[in-house]
Amino acid sequence: MSFEKEILKRRTFGIISHPDAGKTTLTEKLLLFGGAIQEAGAVKNNKIKKSATSDFMEIERQRGISVATSVLAFLYKDKKINILDTPGHKDFAEDTFRTLTAVDSVIVVIDVAKGVEEQTEKLVEVCRMRNIPIIVFINKMDREGKDAFDLLDELEQKLGLIVTPLSFPIGMGYDFKGIYNIYEKNLNLFSGDSKKNIEDTIAFDDIESPELEKIIGTKAAESLRNDLELVHGVYPNFDKKRYLAGEQQPVFFGSALNNFGVRELLDCFVEIAPTPKPKMAEERLVKANEKDFTGFVFKIHANMDPKHRDRLAFVKVVSGTFERNKPYLHVRHNKNLKFSSPNAFFAEKKEIVDISYPGDIVGLHDTGSFKIGDTLTEGEILQYKGIPSFSPEHFRYINNADPMKAKQLNKGIDQLMDEGVAQLFTLEINNRKIIGTVGALQFEVIQYRLEHEYGAKCTYENFPVYKACWVDPKDKKSEEYMEFIRVKQKFLAKDKRGQLVFLADSFFSLQMTQQKYPSVKLHFTSEFN
Ligand code: GDP
């Protein structure tokens, strides 16, 4: 198959949701359509449970599961579909943000009873910042939940989406009769008694036909007609161009658990979802169909076996083909590297692969030369944009608890930070190290891994910080900036890339500082130009 055809075959996306909305269940059903797995239960739920905080082995085990499900690929209707896993747990939100730099589109799963939840809001905001095309799947229609129109309103108001329903439910919960598929113009009935997964699709072009009464009853027929009239009156028609530009978001309804409405979602997805998109580098825009290989690391996973400290770096192929045993330039190190056993991912397995195409994810064994955001090319000096650090939520001093193991500790901290487990800040005034994390769970993970993988011991000490703000002065030589540096010295630190960061100890002090030094901009992310 030609290179161009391989590109057009690929759909690389992520499923995002608040925990428990049904992401794992939906993933599993999608894989079933691809024939990639034989039975339900094959996709491991990689939720990090609250109870795990006190059980390190449990965290490790769960992290291990998330390696296996980091990328799931399957074939459907001659399309190669790559699903990138995004942890729903908020302590791992940063991992999800980074994964979103490697997807070409997303499906957002919403629980019909809960509507738009906190994690969904944050994740969708990031997608919208980057104009990532979004399809919404409203799940659990077999349960009582919110009214469909209210939910559509909520999507518009809380998430700022411009929605267009492509299917519409007939009743819900006990009265759930099925779905009218606006996109395909057919009726899909939910088998009433068993509420099991046999679905019946009936072509239904003319919604005015009296046949409708016969099939779903007078009352339901009437209300469906009214609903559809309202849908046509209120919501814009589906426009693929606008969807692809991130300006309009189609909505589907269904029940993942009952495998209901999932085929409709998938059929529409393979038709409309984007093929591998061009990606912006510092230097230029890189198109998928360029001959030369380029790609970037968006995730690094530590080996589960502490005796082998090698890691798996996940590389998204942006352009060209990635080939086994061919030398590629590691741009940051200015060094050529060859990979003898790159991994590809299929269903829930990984296997060695000779060639990968744009949109694909390759897993590379690494002994510590990669960090998140690194670019690989065939020689061009290129740095992909769009992997910013976000301000952590929790901050602690990290202290060495075993003076004999200082080297090990530093190496361990270094490598864990490269993996993106947390962020390291070094105080300007005394070089003390501060770890910043998105969730409290990471502190325990770090402590455990330092000990078991690097033989180092650490303790923590509280350090009250409200937010880390990346410092962006208008003029580095201005009086105002000099004064800022002098007065705020105690609160200044360098991040891992050497960028200056202001650690504000409260919302109030942040505001005061910004007012006093208006020409020194303070950003909550590390990428701002
Ligand atoms: P995740 O945290 O988003 O991955 O959610 P899961 O897929 O693990 O689902 C959370 C819970 O909701 C599980 O108990 C599922 O069985 C249940 N669930 C998922 N989809 C449906 C659905 O369509 N209907 C009902 N009633 N329950 C569902």
UniProtKB/TrEMBL annotation:
Q: Does the keyword Transcription apply?
A: no
Q: Which UniProt keywords apply?
A: Cytoplasm, GTP-binding, Nucleotide-binding, Protein biosynthesis
Database matches in SUPFAM superfamilies:
EF-G C-terminal domain-like, P-loop containing nucleoside triphosphate hydrolases, Translation proteins
GO cellular-component terms in the record?
cytosol
In this chain, GTP is annotated as bound at 17-24, 85-89, 139-142
Q: Carries keyword Protein biosynthesis?
A: yes
Q: Which molecular-function annotations from GO does this UniProt entry contain? A: GTP binding; GTPase activity; translation release factor activity, codon nonspecific; translation release factor activity, codon specific
Q: Which PROSITE patterns match?
A: G_TR_1 (PS00301), G_TR_2 (PS51722)
Record localization? Cytoplasm
Segments forming domain Tr-type G: 8-277
In the record, biological process GO terms are: regulation of translational termination
Which domain of life does the UniProt lineage start with? Bacteria
Q: Which family does it belong to?
A: Belongs to the TRAFAC class translation factor GTPase superfamily. Classic translation factor GTPase family. PrfC subfamily.
Q: Which HAMAP family match?
A: Rel_fac_3
Q: What functional role does this protein have? A: Increases the formation of ribosomal termination complexes and stimulates activities of RF-1 and RF-2. It binds guanine nucleotides and has strong preference for UGA stop codons. It may interact directly with the ribosome. The stimulation of RF-1 and RF-2 is significantly reduced by GTP and GDP, but not by GMP.
**Protein name per Swiss-Prot or TrEMBL:** Peptide chain release factor 3
- Organism of origin is Cerina litoralis
